[in-house]
User: Fold these one by one.
Assistant:
Number 1:
Amino acid sequence: MHIETLRLQNFRNYADEEFTFDEGLNVLYGKNAQGKTNCAEAVFYLCAGVSPRTSRDKQMIRAGESCACIAATAKTRFGTVTIEADIRETGREVRVNGSRIARNADLLGNINGVFFSPGELRLIQDGPDERRRFLNVSISQLYRSYYTALVRYNKILEQRNALLKERDVSLIFETLPVWDVQLCRYAAEIVARRSEFISMLSPIAAEKHARLTDKAEELEIRAEKQYGKTREEIEAKLSEEFSRNYERDIRLGFTGSGPHRDDLKILIGGTEARIYGSQGQARTAALALKLAETEIFKRLSGESPVLILDDVMSELDLSRRRKLLAEIDGMQTILTCTHTEKVLFGKTVHKIRIVGGKIKS
């Protein structure tokens, strides 16, 4: 899987530019604040339907314009696919091979993408929201059923939380079991898929981490909570947990348990990385997770995803830069940096120089 062309119109600081990418390593280089990260953001947006930088699409529209347009053509093992996104302040329209899609689920899986930047340290150092987001974005690209279950779960959760704020307690106790039946069905799909993903992620990430650190440290990843092995067991445990906590949830005014509250444990040398890990350890662990994610995509979909590395090399020492380049060999990678000669060690790559939102030869 690789992207052949990308066109940006009124996107961030780009007026109208078209990029051509090679199947291997593509390097976007130039001074800071020229638009390299904006290009990387656009690629991932067409893969996952979300920006890795903002939750508000309208922020990606060029100042003074009313609409931004992104379009890419990619080659996959199933043939050529074209994805276009028109982003307006009032919403967006996405087309796959010329046909408008009504749901984001229909976008997922057409072009798989993995995004990594220095900001991904949040995955290790911040709260559970960042780790759940990592799981949700990654698994959604692999399984549309997961994304659909996630959307429906969140809608039902919103209605359940609204009910918990009612003043009529008898109405709450009478109605909660009705919502819980639906909530548990979708929650079971979410928990089961996460469990499958984490069971693959953990050994691969540990292996990648060992290579990056010359086995100096051991990385361990596991789900914080276990619900059961089968979907029936998961659904039963969730149902029991929801009903057991009715009084607590009513007191709090929201649902205090379920997959929307779960976390991923990341340990380095047996200690929790979020609490005890250094900046360097967090960076290497996050990179190992992302490299493991690319391997999972390859195993499950039959082809490598597009790997997007935004300003990563400047944060790594020479040894880990070399190791990273060895790890990404053979997959399409879009890498941004300021000085190519400092990160590529003479490697032959496709270079694209960016100056003020324009491609310069």
Number 2:
Amino acid sequence: MYVDRTLGPGVDCTLGANASRHVQVLRLQPGAALVVFDGSGGQWQAQIVRIGRRDVVVRVGAHEALEREIACRVTLALGMPANERMDGLIEKATELGVHSIQPLVCERSVLRVAGERAERKAAHWHAVAAAACEQCGRNRVPAIQAPLPLADWLGQGDVGAARWLLSLTGDARPLPPPPLPAAVWALSGPEGGLSAAEEAAACAAGYQPIALGARVLRADTAPLAVLAWIALEAP
């Protein structure tokens, strides 16, 4: 179970609301063993010491240096799909091993957020990612950044990372054969795709157009498709 604080042996900590409800639903009792993690790597053995009406306190024990990350560090930069599709995308991308997600506001974006609303969205998506980690056994929570305009983000990126633009243009190439690079930054558009000007700007920033086949994939399907392929090639 995820704990939003730094853990250490002998520390007593209160589980978050979702984790506390999970303990209560399972009808666990004081003394029961749990596994907790703080998202920084590895996991901790823990024991329930108190169950209240709305919270659960556990005592942290030994650390286990267990990792379940994929070998390729993938950053997904994507035009945000609308409504609950973004939640589902973050959940599935977390299960598939994404390292970080950068939501983007593009010319054709349906979902547009900025300022305090953007920060609230990022906090909500972090909670979605943490819950997905609990479900799949992962112990590193991917970084979910606050939304940015595409133009503000294009100049960023790891110097050594491969940069892929998921595209339907005629010059798009198939996914490259293994071995995969150590890091990939994959850029994907919103509903309706990126505009021609946005694709040109991405290519000028070093992004290589990559095709995912003859079919047109939804805004919440294309990034998951490339991430699943990477997860299988670099488990």
Number 3:
Amino acid sequence: MPTFQYEALDKSGKKIKNTVESASKSALLYELKQKGIFPYEISEVGKSAKKINFSFNFGKSVSVADIFFQLSMLIKSSIPLVEALKIVADNVKKQRPKSILLDISTSVSEGKRFSEAMAKHSKFFDEVHIRLIEASEKVGKLSDVLMDIAVYEEDRKKAFDKVKSAVVYPLTVLVIGLGVVGFLLSYVVPKMNNIFKSMNREIPPSTQFMIFMGNFIKDYGMFVVLALILIIVSLQYIYKKNKNVRLKIDKKIYSINFFKEALIGKVSHMISFLLAEGLPLTQAIALGSKTINNQFLQTNLEDVVEDIKSGKNFSHSAESKKIFPEIFVAAVKTGEKSGELSEILDRIGEFYSKRVEKYTATFISLIEPLFIVFIGVVVGFIVLSVMGPLFDLNTIVD
């Protein structure tokens, strides 16, 4: 029988570390749960690669998904919400989430609902999460909804991390390449200029251009970087504060097929998730629209909500807006007829997510060699511009 080592919390929040024999990890989990013990890490002795880690690294960072996961597991282990909040807070090292959890625990102990206590900290918890928990409290499914939110957020984070990791390599190549170019232009080229001057030789046009660029970067490079940062910050400020400007920009962004499919996929997943958790359609669409960062699509979804409230079908309203993909409208119609709108929207979300993932992978596979070729050409041009005249000087000296 395999031997397992586990770390856990008991009902009082005391940490336990033990080594036991069990038929399997699943069997051990069941046995511990029956004893009122909450395991957050299990590993088979001698097989560390097969470790199951239920804890999230609160020492480095903490997310709402981390908190909800542990709360769900503790509540399922029959630990009262007030105590569960304290236990999770004790495992959080960062002061802000720790103080928030303790404050919520105090509010709940004073008789407030969990969702009501969370609403005081709306900058830390999303409105979507608060509304879901509010709905779960009415039907007594708090632990299930907390787990659903945690799993959903973790899946979304994994999808984002997958895209982010794919982008890291080409960006690293570009940054290193630009760093090499900057070093050559700002440090090497100016030194070559001094050599040319001391030799009283006519400098070729390409070399003159490189020397000019090197001197410019050396003298004004920092000012250029600061100016670019200032421009970017100013544009971001205008984008966030001016609704008309943001609406126009977001409309242009939405007209690009890649971003349209990414946004539709994200909002489809979210509406599907909210419907599956028992929220009414209008509330699911309204809350789902707040999770996307595009004012144009968000405004149209808000109009859809008003249309549904006035008696229109979701599909008819979406079709009348003329901005939703035909496949999305057709899927919504099918979902309305079959009564499986949540499942259909989830499939649509998955369909668009895979398409976006495919587009991203294709783009990255194309951009990587282009970056390398671009940097190679630039570095080669600089080297030839500098070394060419030096070779000529050596020939003359010989």
Number 4:
Amino acid sequence: MFHDTRSTIHEKGFSLIELLITIGIIGVLGMGLWSAWVIGLQVTTEKRAEITATAIATEQIERLKTLPYTTLGTIGGIPSGSTPRETIIMRNGITYTVQTAVFYIDDPFDGKAPQDPIPADYKRIRVSAIWNGKFGVSPVVLMTDAAPKGLETTAGGGTLIIHVADAQRAPVSDATVTIKNTKTVPPIDTVLATDSNGQLVIPGAPASQEGYDVTVTKSDYSSDATIRAAVGINPSPEKPPLSVTEGQTTEPSFFIDRLATLTVTTVDNHGGSEKNVTLTITGAKTVGVDGEGKPIPKFTTTKKTNGAGVLTLSAIEWDTYAITLNGVATGYDISATAPILPIFVAPGSTTTERLTLASHRTDTLLVTVKDKQTPLVGASVRITNADKKYDKTIVTGEEGQSFFSPLASDTPYDLTVTKQGYTTMTTNVHINGQTYEDIAIAPL
């Protein structure tokens, strides 16, 4: 009798597929359970580390609370004391960094400095126990207050209130403020942070005449700092070290903001790249004057464009920047800029500047025509000399500029700017090297 074996084969094949699927499912579930077990173990380990960190921080606070109020402070801090600001402790195979800060609190209950004549109302202890855990750097932070015996006591010194703001004068919170003073006994060397109002209030700062060196920083922000006078380099800094007077309040302001990027490209008259061109880029902000009374820029650098004619300055401060080159050394003159120079670089921005270069001549003139601050395209710029041997007119391009080269040194030229619908402007220009002239004309 004929027996059909197809159903039997089908059933065996189907069972094998089911077995493979089952093994796969078990494997996935097994991996999930293994991962969950590993994560659970890491969480347990991290929790134990956190408990240990809390115990370490608590021990430090309890130790500090046993100290006399007058000696409660940190080495180099305000107030000063014998407690190190940072120590390393090993517990259960884990390294903990213990950071201690003690600072005066100006309680608003009896008014705030400068109205409050005794602003150092009590001291606040802040202890951080930090370790490198399974999920990154982890801290435990504990704080407590310590009050003097009696209602209030004077700590002496003055009050230092540091204000930190951005380019728009908005407060900057969590800015790092480093304060040093080698004139006090003991010396001060402490690092603190601004509050949500961009302020750092330090009552009880020892009196000192231009002794406090202050530097303000924040990640991805520019910096601001006091500067000590240096004979022949910066004898008159704009922001010298701070002074604190007994019983008085000192309130300096510092300004920082997000860092920016400036990219400069150098091209020829046809838009092709001009490579390896040395440029000097200088900001408008100054930090003082030199021995000759000349302003000292906060930022200046001299660098070359790369093989593609590009120079990128990253992590620079918001400022207005001038860009120049040495025509003799480079063999070029700047014949056009886009946008017109100087260029403002806003906080956190990525700004580009294109310089069009021409072959160097000893004496040249770059004229920029504006309607107030707006470049005027299509204005006719004519320059002539006294004997009319030189008479040339160039229409302004996309940035309202006309470039004249070569010209004669120490020769007066008459310059006339005309544009339909605008007043005519005539002036005299004296050429000396690469000369720049900004002309403003008004609508009729």
